[in-house]
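Notebook entry, structure prediction.
Reason for the run: the old model in the group folder had no record of what sequence produced it. Starting over properly, with the input documented here first.
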Amino acid sequence: MAILKIIQPDEIIFHYVRLPIKREHNSATWIEDLQREVTILTFEPKPDVQLCQQFYADRSFTDTHISGLFIDHNVVISNLTREHAVDKLKYTCNSHDEYTCNKHSRNPPNKQIIIKASQTSKKQNNHYSNTEVINCPTLEEFYRSWNSFSCVEIMKNINVDDILYGDAHFVKLARSILYGSEKPVEPISSIDNLIPVNGHVITERFSFLTYVSIYSAVKIGGFKFIFFHGKYKPTSQFWDKLQTLDAQIVFVAVDFEQFPTSTHSLLQYSFYLLLQYGGVVFRENVIWLKPLTIEIRKYDTVASLMNPTEISTGGRINFNILMAKTGSKFLQGLIPLHQQLSRDYSKTETDFALNAYHLYEQQPSTLFLFEDLMYTVNCDQKECFSKRDNPRQNDKLAVFLQFSASKTQLNFNAEHLGQFRQLDSGINIILNDV
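New structure, fully documented this time:
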C-alpha cells in the first residue's frame, strides 16, 4: 500500500516463490485484499528463485532484462515520490512535455533501483552503472532522522494495534497509508447512545448452566431484560426461579427447523439480532462477575480477543460475548463477509473469528476490543479451576467456562457467585484461589 500511495506506479509486480496459506498466517488475507482491490497489481511466480537470489546478492538484473524499482519484502516506502523515482530511473520518453513524460510514460526505464533492508546484504555493488542500491535504515535509525530517508526496514511483524495510537513518525506514516490520516484511530463512541443492557442467550435447551448464567447476568451484570432464544419454553424449577428476579426474563421461540445449530448459522443469527435490536449476546457458559458500565456501553461494538498473545499470527475475535448498538457499523460490514464465508461448510469457528478480526484491521474505529471483558477457566467433570496466572483476572467482567466433559453434569450453588461450592455431588467451581 505504501508503494501504491506514495510512489503511485503504473504497475506493481509481486515476485514470489510461495504465497502464504490463509490458515497459517493472516498476511494471506491482506494479499487477497490486494488482489481484489489493486488493479495494477500482478503476481509473478518465480519457482527457480533466481530473481530472489540475485536480489539478495545485490546483483544487477541485466541478465533477466528487467528494469525498474525492486523493493525488498520487509521494506516500507516513506519518502520516495513518483517524480523522484522517474528521475532516478532515467526514463526514455518521446514526449517534449516533461510533465506528461513523468506522469504518464509507459516507456521502459533505462535503470534499476534496488531498495532493500540494510540487513539483507552488507555488500554494495557499484560495478553495474545502470544499478543503484538504496539501503533502508532500521526503525531506530529512521526515528532519529526520518525525513532524510526514502524507506524504512521492518524486521518484525507490525499489528494494527501497534499503530492506532502514538506520535512516532513511522506510526503516523502507517496510519496515513492504511487509513488515510495520521491522526490516532479512536473507536466510535457516544455517551448519548448507549448499548442497551439487554441480554440474549441462544441455545436449544434450557439447562442448569443456562440458569446460572442468566442469574449472574441479572444479579451481578445488572441486566434488566434477558431474552432466552430456544426451541422449547423452559418448564423447570430453575426457570421459575428466574421469574422471581428483579428483571424481565423472556422466552423467544425459534422455529424448530430453522434453529441455528451450525456455527455459521448461530453466529449469523446473533449478528442480525444485535444489528436490529442492540444489546449483548452471550453464551450459557458465561458467568458475569461485574456490572456493565456506561464507559463500556458508549462504544458502537465491543468484543475481545480469544488469545491476545497469538495476535502476531492472526488475531481471533471472541464471540462468547458480543455487545453492539442497534445499527452497529462493525456488524454491517461483518454480516456480508460472514455470509460469503459461510458458503464453505468446511469453515470452522476459528475461520469466522479470523475473518472478523481482519475486518477490525481494515476498520478499527468500528470495534472496541476490551481487554478486560472476560477470561477462561477449564472445567472437567468435577471442578472448574482458575489459577492466578493472570494478574488482571479480578478486573474482568465475566468468566467463560471451558468444558472438557459434558456440562450437563455440572451442579453448584448459584447463590454464591464469585466462589461456587458443591451442593451434593461433590462438584465445585472455583473462580478464586483458596
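Summary: Residues 79 and 149 are 7 Å apart (CA to CA).
The old model has been moved to the deprecated folder.
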